[in-house]
Design a protein that fits this description.
Low-confidence stretches: none
Radius of gyration: 18 Å
Bound molecules: uracil
Number of strands: 13
Strand content: 25-35%
Structural class: alpha/beta
Length: about 270
């Protein structure tokens, strides 16, 4: 009998041996990413979702005969860990998070793309898979594919891309040094943290890379993360509709191209 995974509500048979997955946080972005993947890479898209339970929505795309999944992780480490764990059970070996982010370096602009080489593990989920001393690093082949994709696409779309360390938090508000929206307080341990990360060369804040990279690294699988910049914390914190549109469009273009490049390289290996 075909293996079934509980939270994603998927069977091995449904995923048709897919080895690659793109992982947005938002289930609402899954159909758009699957369409882009099918369109840009000359493939075919399955009609509708394979499954959609809670925050986990999955579509299957065929990229020149190679099945590629798009699965939403929801927000944060705990839900991302479930998605990655269950996709690994189904045989997926290459995981690319395609998300959004807040930059903390002043030279990074809204609409730019950030490729993570690794993540500061400020999450809680990854510590339950591997001790905190274990590094959350992206797989070199995924980093290379993302850089190659960004180099090819950035000039025509007019954005810049940056490669470096991201900080993954478990909260959008306090751990990213935002006043929580009710009491307006930032706990003392987070006050001044953004400046500290900035001085240590960290590029941006997001909420899933550390979990993804720790799980993939410790499972012996390939993980990577690319994010589109929605806001720059050095110059302001407003996320406009235009920033959202731009950040998402650019990051999806890079992620889709990177999958295409990885498939080609893997075929030739
Ligand atoms: N996602 C985050 O985690 N932080 C931001 O500032 C924007 C997107």
């Amino acid at each position: 009998m075909s293996r079934h995974v509980y939270h994603l509500d998927l069977t091995e048979e449904q995923v048709r041996g897919a080895r690659y997955v793109l992982l947005p946080g938002d289930p609402g972005r899954v159909p758009m990413i699957a369409e882009r993947l099918a369109g840009q890479a000359g493939g075919k898209m399955s009609h509708g979702a394979l499954a959609h339970r809670r925050e986990y929505c999955t579509h299957l795309t065929d990229v020149r005969g190679v099945p590629v999944l798009v699965t939403s992780t929801g927000i944060g480490g705990p839900s991302a860990a479930i998605a990655i764990d269950e996709l690994a059970q189904l045989g997926v070996t290459t995981f690319i998070r395609v998300g959004t982010t807040g930059a903390i370096q002043d030279y990074i602009q809204v609409g730019d793309v950030v490729i993570a080489t690794g993540a500061v593990r400020l999450d809680g989920a990854s510590v339950q898979y591997a001790p905190i001393e274990y590094p959350a690093v992206a797989h070199h082949e995924v980093i290379l594919a993302l850089i190659q994709a960004a180099r090819q696409i950035a000039p025509s779309l007019g954005y810049r891309f940056h490669v470096g360390v991201t900080a993954s938090t478990d909260t959008f508000y306090p751990a990213q040094e935002r006043k929580d929206s009710f009491s307006g307080y930032v706990p003392r341990r987070f006050q001044g943290m953004t400046e500290e990360w900035r001085r240590l060369g960290v590029l941006n804040y997001e909420m899933e890379a550390a979990t993804l990279l720790t799980l993939c690294g410790s499972f012996g699988l390939r993980g990577g993360c690319v994010t589109g910049v929605l806001a720059n914390r050095a110059s302001g914190d407003q996320v406009t509709a235009e920033a959202l549109r731009l950040g998402q469009a650019n990051v999806v273009a890079v992620a889709v191209k990177a999958v295409e490049l990885l498939i080609k390289t893997d075929r030739e290996a």
